[in-house]
Amino acid sequence: MADLDASVGVVAPRVVLVEDDVDLRELLAHCLSSQGLAVTTAGSGLELYQQIAKEPADIVILDIGLPDQDGYAIASFLRANTNMGLIILTARSRVDDRLKGFTSGADLYFVKPVDCRELAIAATNLARRLAAGPDVNDLPSLQASSSSEPWVLDNARWSVLSPRGLPVRLTAKEFDLVVALTQDPGRAVDRTALLEMLDYANTVQGSRGLDALVSRLRRKIEAAVGEAFPIQTVHAKGYLFSAPIKQL
């Protein structure tokens, strides 16, 4: 998915920049390319879909205000159907907009105007993290909720509620993952079984897709509710949900 930058001998992350403002799109594309990213552009949701159907990218940088489709809907589609990293770039700066962006599946959220060097570094680091999968050494630093209340899985609304009652809407893939892990909380679910349940191929690429899904879901929920989502990695086994949870 990524091009080799021969001048430095490293892989350049492939980025699709989706922006309907022609001048801004050209300016950002030129700047991101100068920072070592392999950039293609799209001016609408349709152009984005056409591009990634031909060749998936590592990262999509997505404007919300597009002419043909709501950017949040595009974000939700990408999160449910791809393993690409997703950065929202928008003029919308309200907290509610940020939360909607994260619950739609964004990994990062930038408000215009943005320094393209910062955007380039963020995209590069995100691509590297997704390629490497979750760092299990970071898991002990996450603090589990001290509340005695359980997490709640709302099947009707495809949402989880934190012990404090804060809801987070899930994509289809995220919902299926949580369902798979919470049938028997505290019991590890084998990686191979998860790949089959989530319709990933039992290959290295499929396994990386699963790890990326788990990693994004952890970040998304922690950003939305302010506490760690208790999906834990079980070495040489798979994943488990390590906290009480009830279903509605």
From TrEMBL:
Residues in the DNA-binding region are: 143-243
The UniProt entry, under SUPFAM superfamilies, shows: C-terminal effector domain of the bipartite response regulators, CheY-like
Q: Which residues form the signal peptide?
A: none
- List cellular component terms (GO): cytosol; protein-DNA complex
One of the protein's GO biological processes: regulation of DNA-templated transcription
Q: Which UniProt keywords apply?
A: DNA-binding, Phosphoprotein, Transcription, Transcription regulation, Two-component regulatory system
Q: Which PANTHER family match?
A: DNA-BINDING DUAL TRANSCRIPTIONAL REGULATOR OMPR, REGULATOR OF RPOS
Protein name as it appears in the record: DNA-binding two-component response regulator
Please name the source species. Answer: Nitrospirillum viridazoti CBAmc
